[in-house]
Amino acid sequence: MNLKQKAFTGLIWSIIENSGTQVFSLIIFLLLARLLTPETFGLIALANVFLAFMQIFLDQGFAKALIQRENLEPEHLDAAFWSQVGCGVLLTTITFFGAGLVAEVFEQPKLILILQCLSLIFIINSLSRVHNALLSRKFAFKIIALRSLWGTVISGMVGISMAFTGYGVWSLVTLNIVSELVSGIFIWCAVDWRPKWRFSVKHFQDLYSFGIYLFALKFIQFFDKRSDNLLIGYFLGEVALGYYAIAYRILEVMTQLLIKTVDKVALPTFSRLQTEPKRFRRLFYQTTQFTSLIAFPTYLGVVVFAPELIVTLFGEQWIPATVAMQILALEGIVLSISLFHKSVFMSVGQPVWTVRISIVNATANLIACLIAVRAGIVAVAIAYVISSYLVFPVSQWAVNKLIKINLRTYLQQFATPWVSSGIMVGAIFTVKHFLAATIDSKLLIIVGTLVGISVYALCVRILEPQLFKQIWKFIKSTTFKKNKQQTIN
Fold it and tell me: From CA 41, how far away is CA 238, in angstroms rounded?
């Protein structure tokens, strides 16, 4: 199987993983949102802010280094594994005994036991990171997909059962632990590689020289992606953070479904093409256009339907999250364009650029959110989105510098998705104007979505017929691949 076939197969299974996992995860999340209170979600969101910070020290960038490295020796795997496990044990210990201090900072005594229980995740997660990197390196995304699906479904069943029986916040705590545990067991059963009792300092340094940039990147990205949650939790409390967490969750789910699906395959594929600049650039254009074709209309659709989605999916108790959801959905547009920038930096062996851009982004987000936080979650959402749009040109300039893309050709990739999405939004607003008073929210979402999809597809076909044919060919190939796989199984 050549690189193109491996990348295509990997993309199919990455789509299955992300779509399946996110669909099941969203269903579980919706059920829990109706069973639990904003305060409960706020407490877990606060705990996750601290856990996300500690998680930075677990990865150390070794997983990405294993994927990116062209010549990989067994000693590299052993060095990475034992360093990960050592960090996992250390982080669990620190979190367990430091939980009281964190709870005191946020003035939330309930956080102590929550953090102590969730600290087990570090040990569990550390045991399977190298295995997961090996699967990504070999384009074995089928196993990764099945692992994620089983972890999501089993942990979801446990979490919902506990929520129904009145366990409250502990249903979310248990869900997180079970998810990691099931995923870890599955991947150990699926991967033959086992670590040996050895540790090579030389091979550790090989990985560390690449991974140190990713470690720095993770540290910076924490403040980039979590500063809004941290500030809302500290200044506005767990209830406000609960509403914001619900609004942000929709953005998170869509990002996983629409963008990171392709990005998971992009890094190993780009890495194999780092010595072929023409093919590299062509693939970069194709991946960004493919993602924008799906992402632009979806995010704008959420902006239009947010009031109906909140009530239909989560219930009326979450209405205060509506405006924040609409604003954060706009963040998805710039995310869909810029996420591949990081894969470019990593694949050409220049992670330092990712660190530099992330420093700029994190600084802008932190300052913007600090200025806005006392005005409420809507102001924080606006500040967060504006800062991301302001930093995007800097990231784009760095990509242009490294792979010498033609800016005009690059921007042309977004013309059809953008124009078609604008026309689609106009069509949906027309449907809402005439039907909102006569049908309920659920039916309005269904009718509006069908109209929007039809108008969007028609616009793409008229504006760029060749692109439409390629998309249709890809859909048929994907369907055939799935049906063939099901027949074999």
Answer: 8
Residue 187 and residue 313 in one domain? yes
Same domain, 53 and 189: yes
Q: What is the pLDDT of residue 143?
A: 73
Boundaries of domain holding 122 = 3-413
Sequence-distant (6+) residues with CB within 8 A of 427 are 451, 452, 455
360 lies in the same domain as 474: no
Residues 420 and 375 in one domain: no
State mean pLDDT over 432-446: 89
Whether residue 206 is found in the same domain as residue 322: yes
* Beta carbons of 309 and 315 less than 8 angstroms apart: no
Average pLDDT over residues 310-319: 86
Residue 26 or 210, more confident:
26
Average model confidence (pLDDT) across the chain: 82
Radius of gyration of the chain (CA): 22
DSSP string, 469-481: HHHHHHHHHHHHH
Domain count, the chain: 2
Most confident of the ranges 12-16, 82-86, 119-123, 273-277: 119-123
Residues 374 and 427 in one domain: no
- Secondary structure (3-state) at 4: helix
CB 331 within 8 A of CB 386: no
Q: Do 39 and 20 share a domain, yes or no?
A: yes
pLDDT of the residue at 489 = 46
Q: How far apart are the first and last CA of the chain?
A: 20
Helices H / strands E in the chain, number of each:
20, 0
Tell me, yes or no, whether 420 and 315 share the same domain.
no
Given a cut of 80, whether residue 400 has pLDDT beyond it is yes
